Amino acid sequence: MDALEYERFADIYSIWTATAGSTHTNLPFYVQAYLAAEGSVVELGVGDGRIAVEAAVRGRHVVGVDLSPAMLALCQARAAEAGVANRLTLLQGDFRSFVLPEPAALIALPYHSIGHLTSLDAKRDALRHIHTQLRPGGRFIFDDFLMTPGRLDEMRRVQLRAEYDTPDGHHALLWVTSLIDAHAQTMRVVTWEDLLDDDGVMMRRRYRPLSLSWMSPAQAAALLADTGFKAEGCLGAFDGTPFLAATAEEQIWIARKDSAT
Ligand SMILES: C[S@@+](CC[C@H](N)C(=O)[O-])C[C@H]1O[C@@H](n2cnc3c(N)ncnc32)[C@H](O)[C@@H]1O
């Protein structure tokens, strides 16, 4: 990922997640996993703390790691507003090189964020590194897009994602489409925000692209095995439905570091 992408995206992140398909289901899934963990919990790509702060409100201490200072600032502000800043430890770092204060019982990488590493090699580096930061027997949970031809077609379409008023009082429309390279399994999610004056005339358009990618379930399974993880299970939806290729909406992997390592 271009390190600057989320610096530009941060100010529309809450609109983005509020209008997304999977955020309402991935939130309770990850919060539950954080609360159930026996030991320290880490969220990689903690973003604005959408998940971590909710877990903190319910009593869990969470270490949040993110590359983007702008996203970390949003997370800090959200935690302070919720009165749980003391239950969050925020670290600026990359998925491939972060250093934890202590080995973790659970490391989570929610909301397709592994896709921000756009090559399999980069993902392999991240998983190898995540393995080193877990305690023996610790868990790693992540989800990835489950791409189908239908989903790719949908992402290629131009969609009006949201209509809202900006903090400085302008009316805004947020649009999105994706430029997809199906062979490379990469995409550029391009958003543009149109600011309108009182007559509905566009005054300014701002683009905020994000680079993303996806793996097939077979690639994800191979990567976990390659990097020393034991895959305990794969879910097809955040309600706990086991993965079945024909019906799955997502791929949600639950993996463990061997207790002897
Ligand atoms: C899709 S957001 C997810 C935020 C949050 N986990 C959620 O579910 O709303 C992805 C986050 O990962 C961060 N990120 C992307 N690439 C990263 C990397 N290589 N290392 C650390 N953080 C990264 C971005 O800055 C962003 O905050």
Q: What is the CATH class designation of the largest domain?
A: Alpha Beta
Instruction: Provide the low-confidence segments as ranges.
Output: none
Output the strand order for the largest sheet: 3-2-1-4-5-11-10
CATH domain fold name of the largest domain:
Rossmann fold
Shape: globular
Structural class designation: alpha/beta
Structure description:
With 261 residues, the protein is of the alpha/beta class. The protein has two domains: 5-146 and 215-257, Rossmann fold (3-Layer(aba) Sandwich); 149-213, N-terminal domain of TfIIb (Single Sheet). It is built from eight helices and eleven strands. It has a seven-stranded mixed beta sheet, sandwiched between helices. A four-stranded antiparallel beta sheet has the order 6-7-8-9.
Layout of helices and strands:
Layout (H helix, E strand, L loop, with lengths): L4 H5 L3 H6 L4 H14 L4 E4 L7 H6 L4 E5 L2 H13 L6 E5 L11 E6 L10 H14 E12 L3 H8 L2 E7 L5 E11 L4 E11 L5 E12 L3 H10 L2 E7 L14 E8 L4
Parallel strand pairs: 1-2, 1-4, 2-3, 4-5
Antiparallel strand pairs: 5-11, 6-7, 7-8, 8-9, 10-11
This protein binds S-adenosylmethionine (SAM).
The site of S-adenosylmethionine has 20 residues, from loops.
Entry summary:
This protein is an alpha/beta fold. It has eight helices and eleven strands. The strands form two sheets. A seven-stranded mixed sheet has the order 3-2-1-4-5-11-10, sandwiched between helices. The chain has a four-stranded antiparallel sheet with strand order 6-7-8-9.
